[in-house]
Amino acid sequence: MLKYLSVVILIGTSTAFCQAHPGRQAVFHANEMHTGLYAERNFNSFGNVKWKFKTNGKIFSSPAVSNGTAYIGSEDHNLYAVDLKTGKQLWKFTTGGAVHSSPAVHNGLVCFGSFDGYYYAVNATTGKITWRFKTGGERTVGAKGLWMMKPAGLYMDDLFDFFLSSPVFNDDNNAPAVYFGSSDGNLYALNAVNGKLKWAFKTNGLIHTSPALYNGKIYFGSWDTYFYAIDVNTGKLVWKFKTGEQPVIHLMEGIQSSAVCGNGIVYFGARDGYFYALNANTGETAWKYNAGGSWILATAAISNSTVYIATSDSYLFLAFDASTGKQKFSFKANGYLYSSPALLGNTAFFGDFTGKLFAVNLVTGKLSGHFTTSGRNLYAAKLLKNDTLNFGYLSNGQNNTLYTTSVNIMNQLYTLGPIVSSPVISEGTIYFGSADGCLYAINLK
């Protein structure tokens, strides 16, 4: 075991990993392959607000919904369990740092990471800790003079590095394991029952992406600009793929998008402005899409031989033939797209940085409905130009070369209630978090 790793087992609680909560695992973006596909009857628009649950910090975590409960992390250091029917808190678990990792639920355990440097497993019913695992530390990406901003000697956190890696469980009841990445550069495999290390794979960058499991391999990207395929049992490298970089001006062009797998291909976006489709077995390029310099941070979704992606700077939601990369349609939102789309029937649901949640028809590529956060309703007229995020409009009259200008503008944008959290759909209701600190439950129609 690496010197900086430790596992803390809480005696008497390890029996929480059992068959008391049968059924499909609840993980980031619908399943262990991150397809974003939900199997329910078709809904194509939004109804009334069922409830909203307020935390004391921004929410970048995506909810997990399982057995009548929604689990969500908050910047206020807590993981919350919320009753799906009432929107009332069932319990909360407090950590020593912000919880930007999306929780995963499996066999009675909820697993998630915190900026305090630990990944936790707690009992899904009681919120009592089962085990915790210490990484080498969690942090955001940053650099001195980031993006050539001033003062050049000041270390600057990347204001768009929102997430920590979200865990994923395997489906092997004989050897249950959980996998996640860390800012210490390791991809970890732990025994899901007791949190003991099975293996660790080291990269040369922070890992804030969530691993995807597919056909005996684990797929994930790192801030070292490489995308990796690892053997799920041994932790050995199968192949790796290099994306672009421009380190001279600190564009921080690593991989922030998590992968989605299907049809023998693994798909992911990167900060180099490309979306990649690679052969899942060999790592060879099947096709790639040039986003014109726009980052691709959201996880794609796949259904019916079509892959759906969302771009950051160009605000685009796009559909491509999953095999050939031929574009089918594009839809333009009102702001940055970091919320990964959820697919239900003929509709995609996703949010943008202006606090708007979209329902887009997957046949026509047209808007079929939208929902706006309360902050957006209050401040859109003041902060948005023609109802659209325009950084230049907000920074007018300010020194755009200063880091403090970017910080101030982001703080203004946060009042809109940006939706960075990826939505989850369950029994006719869509659940998502917002930077306004709320977990929303909206009935679909």
Structural topology:
Blueprint: E1 6-9, E2 37-38, E3 46-54, E4 64-66, E5 69-73, E6 78-83, E7 89-94, E8 104-106, E9 109-113, E10 118-123, E11 129-134, E12 142-144, E13 155-157, E14 168-169, E15 177-181, E16 186-191, E17 197-202, E18 212-214, E19 217-221, E20 226-231, E21 237-242, E22 260-262, E23 265-269, E24 274-279, E25 285-290, E26 301-303, E27 306-310, E28 316-321, E29 327-332, E30 342-344, E31 347-351, E32 356-361, E33 367-372, H1 374-383, H2 391-394, H3 403-414, E34 424-426, E35 429-433, E36 438-444
List keywords for this structure.
mainly beta; Methylamine Dehydrogenase, Chain H; 445 residues; single chain; 6% helix; 5-stranded antiparallel sheet
Largest sheet features: 5 strands, antiparallel
CATH superfamily: YVTN repeat-like/Quinoprotein amine dehydrogenase
Supply the number of structural domains: 1
The main sheet orders its strands as 1-11-10-9-8
Helix content: under 10%
Distance N to C terminus:
51 Å
CATH topology: Methylamine Dehydrogenase, Chain H
Q: Regions with pLDDT < 50 over 5+ consecutive residues?
A: 1-23
- What is the CATH architecture term? 7 Propeller
E-strand count: 36
Radius of gyration: 20 Å
